[in-house]
Amino acid sequence: MAHAAPIRRQVWALLRHIVLMSVAAIVLLPFLWMLATSLKPQAEVFLSEIRWWPHRLAAAENYAKAFDKAPLARFLANGVIVTASIFLLQVLVALPAAYALAKLRFWGRQTVFALVLFSILIPPQAIAVPVFLLFHTAGILDTYAALIVPFTISVFGIFLMRQFFMTVPDDLVDAARMDGLGEFAIVWRVMLPTAIPAVTAFGIFSVVAHWNDYFWPLIAVNSTHLFTPPVGVAHFRNAEAGTDYGPLMAAATIIIAPLIIAFLLAQRRFIEGITFTGMK
Amino acid sequence: MPDGTGQDFPATVQGVAPAMPQRRRSQQAVALGLLTPALVLMTLLLIGPVVVVMFMSLTDYQLGASAWSIIGFGNYQELFADRVFWKSLTNTLLYVGIVVPASVALGLGIALLIESGRSLRAFYRSVFFVPVMATLIAMAISWEYMLHPQFGLINLMLKAVGLPARAWLSDPALVLPTLAVIGVWQLFGFNMVLFLAGLVSIPRALYEAAEMDGARSAWARFRLVTWPMLGPVTMFVVLISAIRSFQVFDTVHVLTKGGPSKASEVLLYTMYSEGFEFFRSGIAAAIAVVFLGFVLLLTLVKARVLDRQVHY
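Above: the input entities. Below: the C-alpha cells describing the complete assembly.
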C-alpha cells in the first residue's frame, strides 16, 4: 500500500503523456503533411503509399514556383498593409472614445455606451450586403480602402479600452491636467502608455483576425494585386485545380508562417490576446 | 509605511473632488470631440447597415437594377418556400450540433488532462492552440489534400489498417460531418484555454474538503467539485462555440461550394451566393436578417451568462 500510490501516480503520468501526445500528433498532422508535401516533387505527391520524406527533395523548386506562379510576395505585403492599417486606425479611433467614456462626465454618455454595447453584437457578415452597396456607391470597391475601412471602427476595442481605463486612477488624469495637458494630449501621452498591455493584447487579436479573414476580402476586391493572403492562396489553389500540390502546399506554408512564427516567439501573449480579447 | 499611504489617499481624493463640477461644461465639448470619429464610423458602418439590411430584406432590390420597390415580406415568403434555404438552415444547425458538443467535450477533456500533471503544460497548451490562429483557408487546402479520395493521407492510413477508403468531400452523407471535424479541429484549442483558466480559478481547498468528505476517486472529485464549479464557464464556452460555428463559411467556400447537391450548403454560404454571385440583394438581406437573429439570440444569452458569472 505504501509504495502502491507512487507507482499509480507514475502510471497515470505516463498515460497522460501518451493520450496528450497522440492528440497532439493528430492536431499537428495537417501542418506536418502540408510541410512534407511542400518538399515533394510532383512524381511523389500522387503516390499510393504514405511517404513522409521525399526521395528527391524538391523544396527549392516548389517554393520558387509558389513565388513565381502567384504574386505571393504581393499577397504577404497586402496582408501587412491591411492588418497594420486596420490596427492603427482602430487604436486612433477607439482610444479617444474609450477615454471619453471612462473618464469624462458628459450628457449622453450612457446612450453612447449602450450603442457601443449593441454594436458589439453585430456580426460583420450580416451587414456585408449594405456595406458592399455603400462602397459600390462610393466607388471604393476593389481598393485598399475597401479592405480597411469597414474595420476601422472596433466597438469591441472601445469597450475593452474603456474597461481598462476605468481601472486607471482619476488622480493620474487630474495630475496631468494640473500640468497643463489638454484632453487630447492626456489620451496619447498619459492613457496610452498605461494601456500598453491591453493595446498589445487587442493588437494581437486584431492582426490575427484580419490576417486570417476571408469573407470580406473575398467580397471587397477583385484584382489579384489587392488579394490578402487567404484570398490569394485560395485563388492559387483554384488556378491549379488540384494538380500541383507541391507548390500549393509551399504557398500555404508561407502564408501561415508569419503568424505561426510570431506565435512561437510569444505563445503566452498570443493565447491571452486571442482568447480573452476574442471572447466576443 | 502603511499608515502614510492610508492617510495620503483620502486627502488626494478630497482635494480633487470639489474641482469636478466646474469642469463639467468644458468636458461636454471635449467628450464630443473625442467621440466624433467613433460615432460617425459606428453609424456609417455598423448601426446604419443593420437598419439598411432590415429594410432591404423588404425590397426586391438587385445590384445594378435601376428600379426597385418595397415588396413587404415577399423575400421571406420566397425563402421559406425554398427547399435550398431549409436545407441550408438545417445543415447549419446540424454543423453547430456536431461542432459544439465535440469541441466543448474535447476542450474540457484536454484541459483536465493537462491540469492533472505538472510536466509539459505550456507545451501542450501551445500545440493545441496552433489551429486556432493558423489561417483557416490555408489549412483547409491542406485538409483537402489529406482528404483526397485516392492519394490523401487519411485514406492511405485507412487502407493501411484494412479499412475502406471514402470520398470524404464528395459523398453527400459524409461531407457535413467531415467539415465539422475540421471545425472541431480548429475550435477546441480555444475552448481548452477557457477551461484551463476556469480550472485554475477553482480553490484548492474545495478539493481538500471533498477528499475529507470521502471523495477519494478522481471521478468523484470531478463530479463534486470541478464540474459544478466549471458550470458558468462551460455555459459560456458552449455559447461562444455556437456563435463561432454558426458562422461557418471559409471551409465550405473553398472545399465544397455547398455541394455535392447542397449537402454542405450553409447559411452564410447561401447568403454569399445570393448576394455576391447572383446579386439578388433583397433575398441576401433576408438571409442576413435570419442569420443576425440567430447570432443575436445566442449573444444575448451569452451576455446574461457573463453577467451572472462569478467563478471566472
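Note for the figure: The CA atoms of residues 67 and 73 of chain A lie 7 Å apart.
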